[in-house]
Inverse folding.
């Protein structure tokens, strides 16, 4: 579904449509109390309500441990105060899955319903307000204890367990959009006439196309390899064995996509920087594809995570 949906090549709409469902809702499904799940999940899947994931803050992104949004434990629940930034779907969401710091120094994840004390403001980005990217403010918001996901100070586990599937989903979308752009380039290279011959008759163009195809097919192959492993491991096994490989996969997909975006603009020429006409999808892709390299963890962070996990699994006595 993700790979097909990405082919509409409208990043704002695509992120706003699916982001909440596949990154905001899973923590509710996996860690929410039965009554909370029974209330929220049907509303979201029926399209009656919308949800978003609120982790990033002005001073904490990939560094989840740096969260400052605070949840104070009270008799019947929590009082939440703080802010979240760059939250996809925030401006139109009814529910917010929020990571907070507690008085004990740990973390907790809460489901906060839009209401008194909850304010959202749009953030202008390079693509579209259809993504609902926003700045969220929580001002002394009372949250019932029943809206706690997982344990009182077990929020970090909830957040990290969600990251693997989030990054895997982003890799799916990245490869799907990447493939569509390669298709556009192949069609244009056979249609466009230069010096009386098809553009594809130029060796330099065929070289670019060969590199594009190699990148997207290798990304697809790696994605399918990891997906197979995910389908043969439980959630805990995935967290132990696949966090590093998924991080490296997502990093590779976004790096490869940006290379293809640059080559696609060269193949389309002026049309590749024009927002209308035959090159409009190329222009849009080149402008928005860098977002994938930031969402779900920056490329440098993911690369470091993957290598550190690999190093931890190396035999202690391994020597040349």
């Amino acid at each position: 579904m993700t790979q097909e949906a990405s082919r509409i090549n409208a990043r704002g709409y695509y992120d706003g449509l699916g982001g909440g469902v596949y990154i905001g809702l899973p923590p509710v499904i996996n860690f929410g109390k039965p009554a909370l799940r029974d209330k929220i999940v049907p509303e979201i899947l029926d399209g009656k309500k919308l949800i978003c994931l609120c982790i990033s803050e002005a001073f904490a992104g990939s560094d989840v441990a740096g969260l400052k949004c605070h949840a104070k434990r009270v008799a019947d629940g929590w009082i939440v105060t703080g802010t979240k930034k760059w939250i996809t779907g925030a401006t139109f969401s009814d529910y917010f899955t929020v990571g907070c710091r507690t008085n004990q120094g740990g973390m907790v994840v809460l489901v906060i319903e839009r209401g008194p004390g909850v304010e959202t403001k749009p953030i202008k980005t390079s693509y579209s307000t259809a993504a609902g990217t926003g700045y969220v403010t929580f001002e002394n918001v009372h949250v019932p204890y029943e809206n706690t996901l997982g344990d009182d100070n077990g929020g970090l586990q909830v957040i990290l367990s969600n990251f693997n599937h989030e990054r895997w989903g982003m890799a799916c979308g990245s490869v799907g959009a990447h493939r569509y752009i390669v298709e556009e380039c192949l069609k244009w290279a056979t249609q466009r006439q230069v010096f009386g011959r098809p553009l594809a008759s130029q060796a330099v163009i065929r070289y670019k196309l060969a590199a594009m195809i190699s990148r997207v097919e290798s990304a697809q192959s790696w994605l399918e390899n990891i997906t197979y492993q995910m389908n043969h491991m439980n959630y805990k096994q995935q967290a132990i064995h696949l966090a590093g490989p998924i991080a490296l996969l997502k990093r590779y997909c976004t790096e490869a996509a940006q290379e293809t975006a640059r080559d696609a603009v060269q193949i389309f020429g002026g049309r590749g920087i024009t927002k209308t006409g035959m090159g409009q999808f190329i222009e849009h892709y080149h402008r928005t594809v860098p977002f994938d390299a930031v969402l779900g963890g920056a490329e440098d962070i993911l690369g470091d995570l993957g290598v550190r996990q690999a190093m931890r699994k190396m035999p202690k006595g391994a020597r040349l």
Observations:
- Strands lie at 51-54, 70-74, 77-87, 95-102, 107-113, 118-122, 134-144, 148-149, 193-194, 197-198.
